[in-house]
Write a structure and sequence with these properties.
Elements lengths: L20 H14 L4 H7 L6 H12 L10 H14 L3 H6 L6 H21 L3 H6 L5 H4 L1 H10 E3 L5 E3 L3 E2 L2 E2 H4 L11 H16 L2
Antiparallel strand pairs: 1-2, 3-4
Helix pairs in contact: 2-3
The protein binds a DNA duplex through helix 3, helix 6 and helix 9.
DNA sequence: AAGGTAGGCAACCGCCACACG
DNA sequence: TCGTGTGGCGGTTGCCTACCT
């Protein structure tokens, strides 16, 4: 039975599935003119019978300039492993530290390659060690909540926590977690700072 | 050569937060 | 203040391909 709108007109079925080269071209052209915003109107303007969400996803994961595809280097893999250990399944944050990589690609890479690696490693290690690696999952489940929580928690050097004024152990939290600027690959210095910060939050719970 | 299976990846789904009227 | 629309995110699905029997 065909779907109809409230005024009785038939509801147009949206295109689904793989994108064609023509659709890609149309989308890229429209974004070049209007910018990557208002995805619903982009879809309409381009004459693409796609949802705004679908257009956004295609652009972000495939058409965007400077996207690197495939061939994840050992350095990048190591970084993903480290960041996942720290951040959990916060793929967008992890991707933010890997220029040219998308959250979807990293997520897929994790699920198809790295998760197996981890499982193999864990089966060779003691169970207690396995448990320790899962402590960061609290960061991934409800990202917004966690993000706001990070602004509320301050841990002092004597181990007590109190209302937070933007720093933990002299670490500027906002700066530390600002992934808006694409920089070079994650520096060891950043990792060190983040580990310190995370220990403050998790070490006293 | 044909059928079955597993892996990889693109795309979709559902939920949540935020902006705006 | 509330309702609605939109964007962003992580989880999941399903298709395609390579490999195995």
């Amino acid at each position: 039975m065909a779907l109809v709108m409230t005024d009785g007109t038939p509801k147009k079925e949206l295109n689904r599935g793989a994108w064609t080269a023509q659709e890609d071209q149309k989308l890229a052209q429209i974004i070049e003119v209007h910018g990557a915003k208002r995805w619903k109107s982009i879809a309409a303007t381009a004459g693409l019978n796609r949802s705004g969400k679908s257009c956004r996803l295609r652009w972000m994961n495939y058409l965007r300039p400077n996207i690197k595809r495939g061939n994840i280097s050992d350095q990048e893999e190591d970084l993903i492993l480290r960041l996942h250990k720290l951040l959990g399944n916060r793929w967008s944050l992890i991707a933010g530290r890997l220029p040219g990589r998308t959250d979807n690609e990293i997520k897929n890479y994790w699920n198809s390659h790295l998760s197996k690696k981890i499982i193999n490693q864990q089966t060779e290690e003691k169970p207690s060690r396995v448990a320790r690696t899962t402590t960061t999952t609290c960061w991934s489940k409800r990202r917004k909540t966690c993000d706001s929580e990070k602004d509320q928690i301050q841990v002092t050097e004597d181990g007590t926590s109190k209302g937070h004024e933007g720093s933990v152990n002299n670490i500027d939290v906002d700066e530390l977690l600002d992934f808006s600027v694409e920089g070079p690959l994650m520096s060891l210095e950043w990792l060190r700072k983040f580990s310190e910060f995370k220990e403050c939050l998790c070490g006293f719970s």
